[in-house]
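Re: Re: token formats

Sure, here are both.
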Amino acid sequence: MRLTTGMMAGLGLMGAVLLPAQVSAEPKIYAYPSSANYCPAGLQPITISGVICCGTPNTSTSYQQMMAHPAPKKHKVRHYTPRPVTYSCVPGEKGCR
């Protein structure tokens, strides 16, 4: 029982150490849509970290397509209805509103 617990803990630590390296190994390079291509042959305009330069994209979508939302959120309209004023106090009574 103790051996399996130790192995599970070891595998968990190893996964926690190696997972961030695998995730951040390659930055996403997006194609930049433009009408003119001033890049050398074999390259195209790309964006990486907001900078436009020449290269080859490693994603199939552009940055604008990735950031576009499918539909705008609809906000719920709330109508204000005032509460009716009620006076239930007798003159001279304590705690009246």
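Second one below.
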Amino acid sequence: MKFTAKQIAEILEGKVEGNPEAEVSELAKIEEGSEGSLTFLSNPKYNSFLYTTNASVTIVNENFEVEQPVNTTLIKVKDAYKAFSTLLEYYNQIKLNKSGIENPSFIAKSATYGDGLYLGAFAYIGDQVKLGENVKVYPNAYIGDNVQIGDNTTIFAGVKIYSESIIGNDVTIHSGAVVGADGFGFSPGETGAYSKVPQIGNVIIEDHVDIGAGTTIDRATLGSTVIKKGVKLDNHIQIAHNVEIGENTAIAAQTGVAGSTKIGKNCLIGGQVGIAGHLTIGDRVKIQAQSGIGRDIKDDEMLQGSPAFGYGDYNKSYIHFKNLPKTMKLIHQLDKKINNG
């Protein structure tokens, strides 16, 4: 699909400087722009590329002043970075705007769905499933019995959503994610063998949640595992049974949260963090990558280390740790002087 500079400027409420009929059909980095591509410039570090890029159209800030001739048509906007992000979202909506039911696929007779459904080949929709409007279910996805999915939600290829799960509006679940598998519940017996504890709860995912590829969210033993509105989960995250994650919390890849832990809202959790079970993490907490959390955390704490402690104290301690060999050498020298009189 092609767009002219004039059409793009109208979408972004910008001003064209150059050829308003310049056409673009793809997006590119400014240093890699070629004829027919659209790019943007917002970081002064990349200013020099504006004069060498072959991109047909470039979005720049409205206060940007050209210092030498350019071959690209400019679109001037208030915020080039934000404008380009808007275009990416617009482009993605067009690219992913699929509809219709492909064959072979399966929809149970008792399932219901709204207008604008896209169901990819080999997808499965179980009994009593309720799908809202404009839901997109990509090939090889599995939607188990009694699942509810709200409007404008996208389920990418290979996602598995187990029975009884409830998913809100405007949710995106990326390929390979598993929602509602059994929690890790086993009871040790007298002989050492384990007996499985039935997991009969469900998973609730509220509106505007993004779930990355390969992430797993376990169903509750009783009650619900809850992912609240606006949560962003990266790829390959493990959320155990009965966990609750508060609104607008973002968690990076390879983090694991053990059972029944409650995480507050607006938290930022780095990659490869391990959080033990039955803990309470407050609001606006920041946890640095590879930290281990084994205690309750109050609001607004910033943590690092394993086991984690205060971020400032960690950095001070790390300086001493790095100098430990020198410190020990000095101690041995002083010890010799003292013992030798």
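The chain has four helices and 40 strands. Helices lie at 5-12, 80-95, 311-322, 324-339.
- S.
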